[in-house]
Design goal:
heterodimer; A: alpha+beta; Beta-Lactamase; B: five-stranded parallel beta sheet; 8 helices
């Protein structure tokens, strides 16, 4: 059930990730989001504070310098360049504009350094500052009108160090965010494993139950949420177990119920058979019918019970080392076909090949194949024993051949299914089969780790060849 | 084929119709049949006059077939045939361990049952002429008298156990395969159930071995069979 439901979900969301991947992804995304918000806030706050601090220091210094400049320029014929040199601080570019003439402290600085908007504001008599980019670096320009001397004084300071500091901060924050995301993902993997572990245990348990270990249960855990799943799972397993056991009991009950009347019937028929000569001809014919039907009915019940025991996994093999040649000869001899079907050992080593087998089950296999040939193909023509891969091969082959209509390629697999009577299904005629003979052959052979199949006769003549291949025991 | 008049079979079966039909079929084979519907009835009937062979259906109301088998075995070495539902269940081994000599699965042909009974009633084959007394260390077999002694003390074996021991002793030192013993003791062909031999050997060891877990007389020869030695 859970499997088909999963398949149903998968059909509706074909590309949905697995639970573990989703949990991991969620943890990673959560960590990423949190760390980005934290890092962003930190960066913005730090940047603002550092800029404010640095700028107000520069502005303060510029005001002090401007005051000196103004005093100096009051003196007639004062040289602005000399004045600027007297107040110069490291890393600062000074510009004095006297009566429209621009005097820079550094002759390399051109006229176009100052942004127009800054100049405009200073020109109307307002001290102003402005951040701008020049020479690939952020600069702070501070302009102060020198009232009464018709001049303006500017200082331009590179914020390079501050920018570098901020870049380092940003790099550190991005690194921290990335690390946090990775840690979040790792946490997600760990958490998803913890979440999925009970599911994996449930899956293992379900597999064990499907494999026939019906008493498999999940261990109780001290977790309210998981307890729901575990309780439900264990209840389901118990229900399934009791149902399977009930079915198995039913089969064995049916077995007993059918066997008892069959026992009475077969004993009573035997009493009648002992007095056959005393009966009228018609009564004898009726007795023969009765007798053969009791035999057939017994076989049918046996086959049905056998197959239900295979289904219940209750079949046990009584294995021993068996000589294949002896086994096949003995099996054909007790099958009642020994006068009609020759047994041929085609490879010298085949007859003496040794297999580990339940003799009586393999005898049933051979008997069922011979019965099948009788019922559908007018009887087997021969039974062969071969070593297809030579004496060193790991398999021995027992084949039953007939001269019937053969089995078409489409029927070759289906013919081993239960109650499959081939294409001539409607034509049962005098068939004695239960419809389970070949299905039982397959089950028996499988239990012996062998294979069974049907093919054309190798000599090209019409007819089928049923092949049983069994593993040989290495001496 | 007619058998000795007076060979009595006690048939224990709770289903009246089966009992009646089997009794009729067995009587046609020449046996004299006494019926019992329950294990308790069977114990009473056997105590009154012991039968020559007992046929027990394992599924009995009241005391079951295994228990009945053990109860009879405490006082008798009578051959017992069990009737079980299936050949490949543990019932067979459990029945044999409870003391049954052979088993049949339901439904069986009464002629087959007759054949089994005849095989069980066969006398132990005497050893080769001149072997009046077979000695294997402290284990002595006197086939003619049906006697076995271990360290001078007589021990009691069932008829089948005794025949198994005599077969093993008939050719000292030789290894007997399961097939061979099935054929000689039970009269089974190639497809006889080897568990008959295995369980009987186990039962035999509990009687003729001082330490049945480490047998010194009835020895297993791996992959081949069993051997009797001194």
């Amino acid at each position: 059930m859970p499997r088909s439901r999963t398949r149903g979900l998968a059909r509706f969301r074909p590309r949905r990730l697995g639970l573990r991947a989703r949990i991991t992804l969620l943890f990673a995304l959560g960590a990423l989001l949190l760390s980005v918000v934290l890092a962003g806030t930190t960066y913005v706050t730090t940047r603002g504070a550092l800029l404010r601090q640095r700028e107000s220091a520069i502005v303060r210094q510029t005001f002090i310098d401007a005051k000196v400049m103004r005093e100096g320029l009051k003196v007639a014929n004062a040289n602005p360049a000399e004045l600027m040199a007297s107040v110069q601080s490291v890393g600062t570019v000074q510009i004095t504009v006297v009566n429209g003439k621009i005097v820079p402290s550094n002759p390399l600085v051109g006229n176009n350094v100052l942004p127009e908007s800054l100049v405009e504001r200073v020109n109307v008599g307002v001290p102003a500052r402005m951040r701008f980019d020049f020479d690939g670096q952020t600069q702070l320009g501070v302009g102060i009108p020198l009232v009464g001397v018709g001049a303006a004084y500017y200082e331009i300071v590179s914020l390079k160090e501050l920018t570098n500091t901020l870049r380092s901060v940003a790099v550190a924050l991005i690194g921290a965010a990335a690390l946090t995301t990775v840690l979040g993902a790792l946490l997600g993997i760990w958490a998803s494993r913890r979440v999925v572990r009970p599911l994996a245990e449930a899956a293992n348990a379900a597999e064990a139950i499907a494999g026939g270990r019906l008493d498999t249960r999940l261990e109780a855990v001290d977790d309210r949420d998981l307890d729901l799943l575990i309780t439900a799972f264990n209840e389901m397993a118990s229900a399934l177990q009791s149902r399977v056991e009930r079915d198995a009991r039913f089969a064995s009950d049916v077995s007993h119920e059918l066997r008892s009347p069959l026992m009475t019937l077969s004993a009573a028929v035997e009493v009648l058979q002992g007095r056959r000569e005393d009966l009228a001809e018609r009564a004898q014919a009726a007795l023969d019918l009765l007798s053969s039907e009791v035999t057939r009915f017994s076989g049918l019940v046996e086959d049905l019970l056998e197959i239900s025991r295979f289904d219940a996994g209750a079949v046990k093999l009584d294995l021993e080392r068996v000589n294949v040649g002896e086994l096949v000869h003995a099996a054909v001899a007790v099958s009642g076909y020994e006068h009609d079907v020759p047994v041929l050992v085609l490879d010298e080593s085949a007859g003496d090949a040794v297999i580990r087998a339940d003799k009586r089950r393999l005898a049933r296999v051979i008997a069922n194949l011979l019965d099948n040939a009788r019922n559908y193909a007018g009887g087997a023509t021969r039974v062969t024993i071969e070593r297809p891969d030579g004496a060193d091969g790991d398999g021995v082959v027992i084949a039953v051949e007939d001269a019937g209509p053969g089995v078409g390629p489409d029927d070759r697999l289906h013919i081993f299914e239960r109650f499959n009577r081939g294409t001539g299904a409607g034509n049962r005629g005098l068939s004695e089969g239960s419809g389970l003979g070949l299905a039982l052959v397959q089950e028996h052979v499988k239990l012996h780790r062998g294979r069974v199949w049907v093919e054309d006769r190798p000599d090209g003549a019409e007819g089928a060849r049923f092949v049983v291949e069994l593993p040989v025991v290495t001496p | 084929m007619m058998v000795d008049v007076g060979t009595r079979i006690l048939a224990v079966e709770d289903d009246e119709r089966i009992r009646t039909a089997v009794k009729m079929a067995l009587e046609d084979e020449g046996w004299s049949v006494e019926e019992a519907a329950t294990g308790e009835d069977a114990i009473d009937a056997f105590a009154r006059s012991p039968a020559d062979v007992v046929l027990i259906d394992i599924m009995l109301p009241g005391i079951d077939g295994f228990e009945l088998c053990r109860t009879l075995r405490r006082s008798s070495d009578v051959p017992i045939v069990m009737v079980t539902a299936r050949a490949d269940t543990h019932d067979v081994v459990a029945g044999l361990e409870a003391g049954a000599d052979d088993y049949l699965t339901k439904p069986f042909a009464p002629k087959e049952l007759s054949a089994r009974i005849r095989a069980l009633l066969r006398r132990a084959r005497p050893g080769q002429p001149g072997h009046q007394r077979l000695a294997f260390g402290d284990l002595e077999i006197i086939p003619e008298e049906g006697k076995v002694t271990l360290a001078g003390r007589e021990i009691h074996l069932t008829k089948t156990e005794f025949r198994l021991l005599c077969e093993l002793g008939s050719n000292p030192g030789r290894v007997f395969s399961r097939e061979m013993l099935l054929d000689r003791v039970w009269g089974y062909g190639y497809f006889g159930d080897g568990r008959l031999v295995d369980v009987h050997v186990r039962r035999l060891r509990t009687k003729v071995e001082i330490d049945p877990a480490n047998p010194r007389h009835v020895v297993t020869v791996r992959g081949l069979g069993y051997r009797l030695q001194g």
